[in-house]
Amino acid sequence: MTTDAHSGSAEASIDEPLFIESEGHLDDVVAEHEVVLVDFYADWCGPCQMLEPVLEELADETAAVIAKIDVDEHQQLAEAYGVRGVPTLALFADGDQVEQYTGALPADRLRDLLEGYTNE
């Protein structure tokens, strides 16, 4: 699986999940985009795998950026955000973290959550 984590710019629409490479990269993405949903995941996590197609769909159909952080590769970053289990979803709006959930949320609940911040 290859993904160009740097594709797109602040003006471009990002219609697929963006893989975060470092804390600085996450900070840049959050600063550049109005709404960012961060998925802290692990490849071995069953619920994370079930959530993957939902996040891909949301990335394609919403204005929000979907960012993914592999907790095994970025343990310090996961720890900095208090991630205790995967998947953990952190929502950022206008540069600030506004929500955080542990566990896979249903597609309709995630869509409603994102719309609450993108349609203000």
TrEMBL record:
One example GO MF annotation: protein-disulfide reductase activity
InterPro entries (UniProt xref): Thioredoxin (IPR005746), Thioredoxin-like_sf (IPR036249), Thioredoxin_CS (IPR017937), Thioredoxin_domain (IPR013766)
Keywords, ordered alphabetically: Disulfide bond, Electron transport, Redox-active center, Transport
Listed PROSITE patterns: THIOREDOXIN_1, THIOREDOXIN_2
Domain (Thioredoxin) ranges: 1-119
One Gene Ontology term, aspect cellular component: cytoplasm
Highest rank taxon of the organism: Archaea
UniProt keyword Transport present: yes
Cross-referenced PANTHER family: GEO12009P1
NCBIfam families from the UniProt entry: thioredoxin
Name by which UniProt lists this protein: Thioredoxin
